[in-house]
Amino acid sequence: MTITQNLHKIKSSLPKEVTLVAVSKTKPIPDLMEAYEAGQRIFGENKIQEMTDKWEAMPKDIEWHMIGHVQSNKVKFMAEYVSLIHGVDSLKLLEEINKQAKKHNKIIDCLLQIYIAEEETKFGLDENELDELLASSEFKSLKNIRIVGLMGMATFTGNQAQIKKEFNHLKSIFDNLKSIANCQLSILSMGMSGDYKLAIECGSTMVRIGSSIFGGRT
Fold it and tell me: The whole model's pTM is what?
């Protein structure tokens, strides 16, 4: 099947309240343009340099989402154009995003990444770190960022019960946080090509899908 066919198939299966981020990392611009011509306007990248090259070359009505782990010293390269940063997992990173957003006289939307997996390799805040961050005066002083939701990645496993438990855990954290000041939480970003249907069942409002649209990694 073509990229266009894959995209239409996935979009037709998504509830209308769920946003699709097409994960286009490592994919060439012609592939992205095929998805664009098929109506896709949100693309997710995990390397800032690659995302910036694509932003410069492609139509300007695209929303670019940074979905990979972000190094503070690279934030300045995407601050001008990035629409949403998914993997924010420290106050230090938020402070840098705030600083760079201020230079462009804008507010950058961010998702806080929560650690829900039983793997040591995943980034993210645990619940205590999350509470400490949100309660801190440093966080409350940041005027050029907006926390619009949470993001999490389940353990890479075939055990559906475990994945479901992790997604449900993240949803409960999300629900508990909705009432907190300085956070306008509307986005729960969880679910990728292998587990997005389960993630939607568990309350995800944003899914990150790559290989099911563009084919396997090159």
Answer: 0.94
Question: Containing H/E element for 51?
Answer: helix 48-57
3-class state of residue 149 by DSSP: strand
The mean pLDDT value of the chain amounts to 94
Q: Which two tokens stand for residue 57?
A: 């070359």
Contact call for residues 45 and 64 (beta carbons, < 8 A) = yes
Low-confidence ranges of the chain (pLDDT < 50): none
Return the pLDDT at 218: 54
Q: Which two tokens stand for residue 214?
A: 């563009």
Give the closest residue to 101 by CA, choosing from 125, 124, 83.
83
The answer to whether 118 and 155 are in contact (CB under 8 A) is yes
Q: Are 88 and 130 in contact (CB under 8 A)?
A: no
Helix (H) or strand (E) holding 185: strand 183-189
Name the residue with tokens 């939607």: 200
In the 8-state DSSP scheme, what is residue 70?
P
Q: How far apart are CA 21 and CA 202, in angstroms?
A: 18
Residue 174 exposed, middle or buried by CB count within 10 Å (0-12, 13-18, 19+): buried
